Amino acid sequence: xxxxxxxxxxxxxxxxxxxxxxxxxxxxxxxxxxxxxxxxxxxxxxxxxxxxxxxxxxxxxxxxxxxxxxxxxxxxxxxxxxxxxxxxxxxxxxxxxxxxxxxxxxxxxxxxxxxxxxxxxxxxxxxxxxxxxxxxxxxxxxxxxxxxxxxxxxxxxxxxxxxxxxxxxxxxxxxxxxxxxxxxxxxxxxxxxxxxxxxxxxxxxxxxxxxxxxxxxxxxxxxxxxxxxxxxxxxxxxxxxxxxxxxxxxxxxx
Length: 254
Description:
The protein is of the alpha/beta class.
């Protein structure tokens, strides 16, 4: 059995816009619906949603027949947490709150086998198709897609240094935490924050990496894509559910 190429990683390397959706309900049913909806990627959230590796694996299984590549966000930049997601078959990892090139290098090491990294070796797990991919260890490093989140003004100042790292595929702007770090808690659309985001997207792309962001405002998403962001999440399953049910209630109950 052959290791499948990472289509999401290849699309980012080619500069193709990838439109995605946050999957935060910790539900295989939701992941299956989103995976089949026509998006390029979905993000299974392990930082702000109650997902553990077991639940992540179930969502990977549910979404695998759809169009969307599954990306998983780990709870923290921790080699053990990252290893567990890789072992259940996550091919693309998003690491939150990476502040500088040293922290980004730790994330790179966590997704690579020795001697290039520190990922533990297991031969009978879902990532290896339970041992059926005989050359998994030889090919895995090249297929893992690693994305890190720049979520503070400090992190934005280290974009070029992080982008120089081999093994890092993209940098994702976290607008909510960035706004908080800039003194605009709860207002990621503040003009100062928006200016910082636009500048960061430009610099990430100029440095040769993919640039990503999440926004629930469709016009903002279009502007971010126009500005160079090439993996953009345009909402979340929880947000869509809240919005749609609220609209129904208003329609029928006033």
